[in-house]
Design brief:
Length: 346
């Protein structure tokens, strides 16, 4: 087990080991959960370490099951890495009905497929991935528990003083990406209500690690002397391992109608404060542009904390690890989050 007070994560191997470390709640969940776990859309930023966490938690719990990662897998490197972790891999275009039909049955499905970046200009593909595909998946796996990733973007902007949107709030999505994600939720909800598909819907806002995320975006700007945009002046951030732990534990809460849960950090974080904290870490001045609006994309994760406990990894720990990683020139995924975008165009 790692100490969460360590000041440095030495390399990618150590990072991925840390990101896949299951907490006690995840081990208990996978001890009591029956059946295999199929992770659809596993080739993205969060999927590989979620699948590895499921494998590690199952091993720790003494639960014999297959963990199967499904993705288009454009490069052979990721399947090889997953297989070295004890995870089976299947290369599949999920929009191909025949390929989807040929996937193995599994009692538990984690749905991570979707499209965000590049959605502007490819709106039809965005809707196909985010709203049409969920119907195909819900129909194919109607006898499974499904934990489906969504986004806090479905809520729209909320006043900072409110401490963030709650699961009971009405969605007000801004832009086609957010609207298509609400479409994803509604399609899963339809199958849950009409076909009794046990479903949990996970509204994430935002997961971060050392190679990508809103905190990394801000750290890089401060480190390179670029101005930090204050247009979206507040945000939530949660360490990716803590987000994945909630996602896996939510499988036990999957229900009909669906179980909705926000996955977010415990604090409303100021972009100005984050930049100033990185400025102090790097010993470099920070420049700002724009001013903070009174609203932002914010989620209140109190329900998740009551059910699963608060995240293991604090804001201060994330700042320390990221500052060290960025200052050493650590590997990044080169995928900016564009968190400052208030018009919903990605």
């Amino acid at each position: 087990m790692f100490s969460h007070s360590e000041k440095s994560v030495p390399d990618v191997e150590a990072l991925e080991l840390r990101l896949s470390e299951p907490d006690e709640g995840t081990v208990r969940t996978l001890a009591s959960l029956s059946g295999d776990i199929l992770v659809l859309g596993c080739g993205g930023k969060m999927g590989p370490t979620l699948a590895r966490m499921a494998r590690r938690a199952s091993n720790t719990a003494g639960a014999s099951r297959r963990v199967i990662a499904v993705s288009r897998f454009s490069s052979p490197r990721l399947p090889a890495k997953l297989q070295s972790w004890g995870i089976e891999t299947i290369s599949c275009d999920l929009l191909d009905p025949a390929a989807l039909a040929n996937l193995p049955d599994a009692s538990n499905v984690v749905y991570m497929a979707g499209m965000k970046f590049g959605s502007t200009g490819q709106e039809s593909l965005t809707w196909a991935m985010n709203s049409f595909l969920p119907g195909l998946v819900a129909d194919r796996f109607r006898n499974s528990r499904i934990a489906a990733f969504s986004t806090g973007n479905v809520y729209g902007l909320t006043r900072v003083a409110s401490a963030g949107s709650q699961e009971s709030d009405e969605p007000h999505p801004v832009g086609e990406y957010a609207m298509s994600c609400l479409g994803r939720e509604r399609i899963f909800e339809h199958f849950s209500r009409t076909a009794n598909v046990k479903t949990s819907i996970l509204r994430l806002n935002y997961a971060t690690e050392l190679r990508y995320g809103v905190l990394v975006d801000i750290a890089q700007r401060v480190n390179t002397g670029q101005p930090v945009d204050l247009s979206m002046g507040y945000l939530n951030a949660i360490w990716q391992a803590d987000a994945n732990a909630v996602a896996l534990q939510s499988l036990l809460h999957a229900s009909s109608p669906p179980f909705f849960i926000n996955i977010a950090g415990p604090d409303v974080l100021s972009v100005r404060r984050i930049a100033e904290d990185f400025s102090a870490c790097f010993g470099k001045p920070v420049q700002f542009e724009g001013t903070e609006a009174p609203d932002a994309l914010l989620s209140n994760a109190r329900k998740a904390f009551q059910l699963f406990g608060k995240p293991r990894t604090s804001y201060e720990q994330m700042i320390s690890w990221i500052a060290d990683w960025v200052s050493r020139g650590g590997e990044t995924l080169a995928k900016p989050t564009h968190f400052e975008n208030r018009a919903g165009k990605f």
